[in-house]
Structure formats: structure tokens, C-alpha cells
Amino acid sequence: MNSPIQTLAGVVTEKFITACPSKAAEALESLATHEVLLLISSLKAQVIITLLNHMNAPKAAAVLRRLPMRQASYVLARLNVPQAAKLMKEFSAPYRERISAVLEPAFVQLIQSACAYGPECVGSLMQTDFISVRTDAKLAQLIERLKNLPRKKIPALCVITDKDGVLKGTLRSVELAFYAPGSVAGSIMNRSAALRPEDTFVHAREVFEQTQAEMLPVVNQQQVCVGVIGRVSLPANEKKSFWQKLTD
Length: 248
Known about the structure:
The protein is mainly alpha-helical. It has two domains: 4-114, Annexin V, domain 1, CATH 1.10.220; 132-233, CBS-domain (Roll). Helix content is 48%, strand content 10%. Strands 1-2-3 form a three-stranded mixed sheet. Helix 10 (139-147) links the parallel strand 1 (132-134) and strand 2. The radius of gyration is 20 Å and the shape is globular. The N and C termini lie far apart (61 Å).
């Protein structure tokens, strides 16, 4: 059982990470790995994910390796793709094989190819933690999954795929209220444009503009959904208008 001091340290650490993740990561990097684990062991998975996303790869990998395998695989699969790829490189070959065996094969393939994505490509910003259901699933199943999520984690967009993970359509969470729970996902899904991990930010902005979507699925060459990306995730377009240039 945690002592009151450990509990207090955990609360302070969580607030620090939530308020300023980059500064928290920098501070915790200076500690020994076992000291970091003492501070974060009781924290929610999302807080640990936030911390490791901002921590340098060697230290983050050392921390992740010390977590129970089930927790480690959960956290790794929800890190930013480039960061997950960096951590995978830091692992020893035996550990890499062990954790790869419990991860989704599509995610393993994704992070293996992540180093090929440029810094201004969709793959560097997409989220791999998304909700998907098959075309033959009843809405009741999807609603039940969403009900079990914290309110802040309910996604704006749910992905509809076939049994092999190939994208077939999407469904916005707000639309669920308009259909009967017995409705089949494939019969009410929306056809959706999709992006590729290697697409540039410029191309992604164009697709968002054309579709007026707020979030889009990301697919690989086999059309398997590997992530989602929101319009707000893209950095602001630095291209200035003629009038802006005149007034600078």
C-alpha cells in the first residue's frame, strides 16, 4: 500500500505533468529510472502516455521497460507514432520481440515504417488510439464501448471497417442519437475521405478544406485504418496572403 507521502508525491507529479508536460519530462529525466517509477506507478495511463511522449527516447524506453508488459504495451500503442518508433529502437532485441508479440501486427508494422515519415507528414501527428467497429456490428455494441470511456476520451469520429481492418466508412459520435441501437453500423455509416501517413500537411489541409471534416481516418497502402487525425492537430498554415505580406 502506498504511504501518504508516496500518494502526495503521485498527486503532485500528476498535476505537474498535466500542467506542463515538457517541463515535467525534463525534471523526471534527471531522476533514476526506479525513482521515476515510484512517482508514476499509481498514475492513470493517459498521464503516463503524456509524460513519455515528451521524454527523451532512451529514458522513456527505460521507464517503459520496467512497467508490467500489459501496461507497457497499452502505453506504447498510444504514444505518438514517431515517439513509439524511437522507443522501439531503444529496446533490446529480446524485449522488442516480447512486446511486439502482444501488440497489434498493424501497429508494429506502422512504427517500423514510421522513421520514413517526414516531420511534416500526417504520420507524425496521427492518433493510433481510435474506436473502430466492423460493418456488421450493432450500434448497441458501439454505444456500450463509448459509455465505458471517460467523457474527455469519447472520440468525435468512430471508424467502420471490415473484418480485416480495411476502412469502409465513418460515423460521428453525435449521430448515434439519431439511430436505433439495433441498427447495423455498415448500413448507416458515412463514406469518408482518408489520408495516408506519408501525406504532407499541405495535402491534408486541402482534403480537410474540400470535405469540411473535422477528423479523418488514416489508412496504409492496403486501405487498413492505422489512425485518425483532426484538423486542429495540423500546424497553422504559414503561407501568407498578398495583403498580409504588404502589411508585414
